[in-house]
């Protein structure tokens, strides 16, 4: 409760108190202030008037409880599937080896065999200009055409990893045809023309 104005401190309050007392006092009775009972009644009446001058402050409205929110639902989106790995082409069957007439014929047949047994690392179209790298290998053979030794005659200034790519390609194509009927030394050279995708073409096939 909050009192807006004390009742007995204003003329209006005094008039209300006197009027109430005259209405309350029975006729012919002795003055109220001369007896203890009258004093108690007057004090009680004054308390009633004091309460009349007070106003109640309305209670603050009760805040409504917040609406329940649904728990977040975990996303069920699946991650994008990884692209399938590109399958490597199986090597084509190399052309049958013919009895080589000379070393030029032997080198041409060896280039065709290297190309056929390395399908994912070779090309047959026009040579890319300028070539990415041009390593040159010398392949020394045993009598039966197996590889005895590979020597690097020219190492490119860039993309030096193409040297090992060329060596691996020769080893995959081995063994070659027998060389016992050809003059010594039993060896041939090959130049590997690499493009920007690190695929090569034997230069012998462009001659």
Name the features.
207 residues; alpha+beta; Fusion Protein Consisting Of Minor Coat Protein, Glycine Rich Linker, Tola, And A His Tag, Chain: A, Domain 2; 2 domains; four-stranded antiparallel β-sheet; two-stranded antiparallel ribbon; 28% helix; disordered N terminus
* Structural class based on helices, strands and sheet pairing: alpha+beta
Report, as a whole number of angstroms, the end-to-end distance. 114 Å
Q: Choose one word for the global shape.
A: rod-shaped
Give me the Rg, rounded.
Answer: 58 Å
CATH architecture of the largest domain: 2-Layer Sandwich
Reported for the largest beta sheet, the result is: 4 strands, antiparallel
* N to C succession of SSEs: EHHEHEEHEE
SS element count, helices: 4
Weakly predicted, low-confidence segments: 1-5, 48-56
User: How many DSSP-defined strands?
Assistant: 6
Count the domains.
Answer: 2
Any idea of the CATH topology of the largest domain? Fusion Protein Consisting Of Minor Coat Protein, Glycine Rich Linker, Tola, And A His Tag, Chain: A, Domain 2
Proportion in helices: 25-40%
């Amino acid at each position: 409760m909050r009192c807006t104005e004390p009742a007995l401190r204003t003329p209006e309050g005094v008039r209300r108190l006197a009027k109430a007392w005259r209405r309350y006092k029975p006729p012919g009775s002795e003055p109220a202030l001369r007896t203890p009972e009258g004093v108690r009644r007057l004090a009680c009446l004054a308390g009633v008037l004091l309460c009349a001058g007070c106003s109640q402050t309305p209670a603050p409205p009760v805040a409504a409880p917040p609406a329940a929110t649904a728990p977040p639902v975990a996303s069920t989106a699946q991650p994008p599937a990884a692209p399938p790995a590109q399958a490597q082409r199986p090597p084509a069957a190399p052309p049958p080896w013919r009895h080589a007439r000379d070393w030029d014929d032997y080198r041409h047949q060896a280039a065709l065999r290297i190309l056929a047994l390395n399908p994912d690392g070779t090309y047959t179209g026009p040579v890319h200009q300028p070539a990415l790298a041009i390593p040159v290998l010398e392949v020394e053979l045993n009598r039966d055409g197996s590889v005895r030794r590979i020597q690097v005659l020219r190492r490119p200034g860039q993309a030096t990893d193409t040297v090992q790519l060329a060596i691996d390609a020769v080893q995959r194509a081995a063994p070659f045809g027998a060389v016992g009927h050809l003059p010594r030394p039993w060896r041939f050279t090959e130049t590997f023309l690499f493009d920007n995708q690190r695929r090569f073409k034997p230069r012998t096939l462009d001659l």
